[in-house]
Structure prediction request, 440 residues.
Amino acid sequence: MSTVLPQTATPSAVPVNRWWQMLLGFVAMMAISSPQYTWTLFLHSLEGKLGASLAQLQVTFSLLIVLQTFCSPVQAWLVDRFGPRLLISIGCALSGLSWVLSSYVTNIWALYFTYGIIGGFGTGIVYVGIIGHMVRWFPDRRGFAAGIAAAGYGAGAIITSFPIANMIPTSGYAHTLFVWGWIQLVVGVIVSQGFRLPEPGWVPASTFAANAARNDRQSQHSFRAREMLRTPVFWVMFIMMSMMATSGLMVVSQVGPFAADFGVKDTLVLGLAALPLSLTLSRATNGLTRPFFGWVSDHIGRENTMFIAFALEAAAILLLLLFAHNAAVFVVLTGLVFFGWGEIFSLFPSTLTDLFGTRYATTNYGFLYIAQGVGSVLGGPVAAYIREATGSWTTVFVIVIVLDVITALLAVTVLRTLRKRWLARSAASSVTAAAGATPA
Prediction:
């Protein structure tokens, strides 16, 4: 049964500043970002230590993302049930602990369990919990708020890429994992203590925010996951996010190996090694794109913004394929790739909440977030296998370019049409509910 949110709620003076909640969410996301975004720095050392192939090691990366995403409905339900402070604290602790334990592994199966499974489940709790938390606190700036939260995850590795890259050859990968695991655990758990939920019925004290629930781009009802999963618009979004996740995660997980294959890994650009410089710039653009395109989508619409961003991603990967042998161009283009990709983590959750309401936003996004797990399998071990089978990255790049183009077109054709139909149905349900009937 649909749940009608209070439409007569008045702004209340809650003692929690929502901008402070946004800052805490940003920092907590930063604390758990390194397991995904600096993974590529450990690959060479792990190959030598564990005697594993690239494809075998990339299973670890896929496990990290799969456990982060495929378990997200359960993780999101736990956050809704027990609150963000407790669950996000636990998630940050598990994420840091996964690195600490990984520093002791001596075989690939232990790495799968520590780095992949424990790390994936921990980061998943934090990620879906904070995204759901932000869209509750910012009904008037939903795209921007989801983008800021996701930016913490995208940009967090900016401050860790060079220190980790420098620490691995001097102190060893195991000591690096141990030290940075404890850092992210302590920081994440401390900031999580400040999370608070808004009071029931609370809305921000602004005219625009008070009218947000009546905006024709947003549903006036909150729908449970079982209702959402029966709608075609959800599954179109799931397919689109899976295809876009494949594109970006292929670059995230493989950038180290194909930098080596293109002969630019250790080439100096502005006096710095190309690979860690690329990672640092990419984390900056990956963070910037999320609030930027979220803000744009609040003004020109979600689907129009998706088309622009996804087409940019396709163009950037095409250029990377053509010019990656130049180290300086490689650094710039990898940054552009992430600017065209990272916004999926603000556009999709904000669109989903527009369509299905805020009350169950965390749990609902947990189901959509599984799409990143699909992308991690296709962009990680499957892409590595194609590279090993064909002897080059060309086939992999062409596939992800095609996926990006298809997704951009789906946004302004199929998704736009289905969204309008669903919101029209939601509006009709609102009228029925106001008359005292149960919404369909």
Notes: The chain has a mean pLDDT of 82. The CA atoms of residues 321 and 394 lie 7 Å apart. The chain is about 75% helix and 0% strand.
